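#struct-help
A.M.: can someone run this one for me? Single chain, 335 residues.
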Amino acid sequence: MRRGFAVLTSLVLLSPLAQPGCAAGSSLPSSDDAGLGTDAPLDSPSDATGSADGDGGPTEGGGVSAQHACGDWVSNYCSQLETCANFELVTVYGDKITCSSQLQRLCLDVLAAPNTGFTGDALEACLVKTKAEDCFSFLYGKPAPPECQIFGTTDNGKGCRYDSQCRSGYCKLSGSCGNCVMRGLTGSPCSAASDCDSNLMCAGNMTCQPPQDTGATCDMTRPCKQGLVCANGTCAAKIAMVGASCAGGLACDDSQGLYCDGGTMTCMSYGIPTQGQPCDPTTNRCFGYGACSMGTCVAASTDGTMCNAMQSIGCVPPDTCTAGTCTLFTANQCM
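D.P.: on it. Structure tokens below:
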């Protein structure tokens, strides 16, 4: 789902990730790339804004520092997420402070990645455009604004982690790392919308095709615009109202915390149980990326703290569990 995070990793705009052990559909930062940051430790809300005292402003050369630009980006991203999809904020990060502290490291890695085209100034220019987006564009817009499409110097076929490292502007991931490739034009093979250039979507026949808008006919060769669903052959918006009918292929808006109840065929709200509370994977999403394990929510860990797959203790994105500790997988590990 989330374009917003995919920009950051691309700068990281967010892409859909499912909560471990819970219902699928949560959005998370992807590795496409965009940025976040501040010079001070992220110990408080003010620390995550990029306006902390110290040397977080212009660099000696006059440009905006990565720390400062990342602080601005993260603060805005987490605030937009709270406004446009608070359910996603709560079920992925728990709160804005955790959102900022987790994404800060990712943004700084994007701007420090080998061969990246991203700079603090470029990230600030992108931020001006993303701040002006409405919620649909923030969550689903494709392509990103031109100011957010950053190109690096890594040649096609070479290793990468973020889009902004590549001359082509696209790092096709396979696991945590990938290779720089060209995005597909109309008719090109694809496995995801990100494989396709501009606003093209990956159709049901696994080729890149022009998107159809609300009310247009959709099928295996005519995909709907990102954020819409194909219901009975017609592109339609997701339903964002509790109690509304979701019969006939209509979809409830999971970004707003809704799911289609199979018994009543109406949209219902997910419950959000916290650590130690009972949970049902079909009707609940655990708080802060927790896992619903054996009917109970198990809290996820943040950067630098313990994780254990056997005990269903995962990591809050974008961290992964490495040797029992939640850590960020960095761009240098892909080179």
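A.M.: thanks! Residues 1-7, 11-56 have pLDDT under 50 and may be disordered.
D.P.: also worth noting: The longest strand covers residues 12-16.
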